[in-house]
Design brief:
Elements lengths: L18 H13 L18 E5 L2 E4 L4 E4 L2 H4 L8 H13 L8 H11 L7 E5 L2 H16 L3 E5 L8 H4 L25 H5 L1 E4 L4 H11 L3 E6 L13 H14 L2 E5 L21 E5 L9 E5 L1 H4 L21 H13 L2 H25 L4 E5 L2 E5 L8 H4 L3 H17 L1 E2 L5 E3 L6 H25 L1
Helix pairs in contact: 3-11, 4-11, 8-9, 12-15, 14-15
């Protein structure tokens, strides 16, 4: 097999053919719109198709080795085919894949997660992060008796109509006095936009004014303190304190979305901001690589999900919710995420950002890296980033990323299309150094290719 990598570093400037991946994509086009079930894995002209993975590497169907910095969009924190997770899944599946009854391992995982933070008083599982967010909003509406929600401009919270509002707003429809609500998907009802209030990120005064103006109809504020689509920059302490005070004063349920940023520490993201949310949504790493979501938080709000007779139920179910295979995988994953594991990931993340910053500086090209802990995002510019609008790429910057991302895939490095990514526990400084070198070379190549095409 022709490998782009040995154990530590790119070993060859040649790759195997991509013929099998191309053939699979052509077959996929006949049976799936656009040739894929997930928009985020479409790469022009076609994606590589994974055959198997081990640790931090994927081997595609053509035999090419790819160093994986997406980890299935930040969910596989232990990389691929982690032995303890594989063993837990195998043992659980042998006992039965799913039942119309609860299982002990569901209680085990619930106890483990709730023990990680005093904020996590009770928990409810779902099949995805999108479902977790949807359920949290339903509970907040039931608890407050209010219809509307607020969210941050540009923030991603899954595929639910209300949380997609202003996910991809553009300079031409941003609004001036306040962020305008814009539709993300064709066909979104106007009423959905009307019931979604958009707040600017890291602008405490403006955010509080909007919360106060709409407070009487707001059930919840959905908030990610390290939102990837907003630029993967942390919320400022002043902004966090201001929105927490306002939501408490106005009776608005604060839902902190930690589906991605729960990986920042053993207790999640909220302790790092000294924040006590009302509800928290979880997903990704708590499932050990299998589909999962969860809502956790204040007992009185979580009681909205209680289906026992005489209780104020918000119906919530799911054929595969809390299936024992996912619960076992999640428990095996989280038990490995002890403090030394977090220390390793956070040190490696710091090394990554320092190494990439130095490598890019050496090229003299305008680029920077943001992030926190084991999360990162590369920006093709050097202007200060503090919110969605300052992170938003120009047309020329989008074109550069459009050239750079497939080039990196061809070199054997998998990042997301917006050049963000996450580290996994099997990684070492060798992998980080390799991608830093590739990014520097790739920016130079992409800039030259753009000049040649102009």
């Amino acid at each position: 097999m022709n490998s782009k990598f040995d154990a530590t570093h790119p070993a060859s400037d040649r790759r195997n053919s991509t013929a099998r991946s191309q053939a699979l994509f052509e077959r996929a086009l006949q049976v799936m719109p656009g040739g894929s079930t997930r928009a985020t894995i479409f790469f022009h002209p076609h994606p590589p198709y994974a055959a198997h993975g081990q640790g931090s590497r994927i081997v595609d169907v053509d035999g090419n080795v790819i160093l994986d910095f997406t980890n299935n969009f930040f969910s596989a924190i232990h990389g691929h085919a982690n032995p303890r997770i594989v063993a837990a899944v195998t043992e659980a599946a042998a006992r039965g894949i799913s039942f119309g009854l609860p299982t002990e391992v569901e209680v085990d995982l619930a106890e483990h997660i709730c023990a990680r933070s005093p904020v996590f008083e009770t928990i409810r599982f779902s099949n995805s992060g999108s479902e977790a967010v949807l359920s949290a909003i339903k509970a907040a509406r039931a608890f407050t008796g209010r219809p509307a929600i607020a969210k941050i401009e540009g923030a991603y919270h899954g595929s639910y109509d209300h949380v997609e509002v202003s996910l991809d707003s553009k300079p031409g429809n941003w609004g001036e006095a306040a962020p305008a609500g814009t539709k993300y998907a064709r066909g979104t009802p106007d009423a959905v936009v009307g019931d979604t209030v958009i707040l600017p990120f890291n602008d405490a005064d403006a955010a509080v004014r909007l919360l106060e103006a709409h407070g009487s109809r707001l059930a919840a504020l959905l908030f990610d303190p390290l939102p990837s689509r907003v630029g993967l920059i942390p919320a400022t302490p002043g902004f966090v304190a201001a929105i927490r005070e306002a939501t408490q004063r106005l009776g608005i349920v604060l839902i902190v979305d930690e589906i991605v940023c729960f990986r920042l520490s053993h207790g999640g993201a909220h302790p790092l901001w000294d924040l006590k949310p009302d509800l928290v949504t979880l997903g990704k790493i708590i499932g050990g690589g299998l589909p999962i979501g969860a809502v956790t938080g204040r007992r009185d709000i979580m009681e909205m999900f209680d289906v026992r007779p005489g209780k104020p139920a918000v119906p919530h179910g799911g054929t595969f919710t809390a299936n024992p295979v996912t619960m076992a995988a999640g428990l095996a994953s989280l038990r490995q995420l002890d403090q030394p594991a977090y220390d390793h990931l956070n040190r490696l993340g710091d090394h990554f950002r320092q190494r990439v910053t130095a490598a890019i500086a050496g090229t003299g090209l305008p680029a920077q890296v943001t992030g926190m802990g084991s999360l990162f995002r590369i920006h093709p510019h050097r202007r200060p980033v503090h919110d969605y609008r300052t992170a938003y790429p120009t047309d020329a910057e989008k074109a550069l990323m459009g050239r750079l991302h497939p080039w990196l895939v061809e070199q054997g490095f998998l990042l997301t299309p917006n050049l963000s990514g996450a580290l996994s526990t099997p990684m070492t400084e060798a992998e980080v150094d390799a991608v830093a070198e590739a990014l520097a070379e790739g920016f130079a190549w992409a800039a030259a290719a753009g000049r040649a095409a102009a």
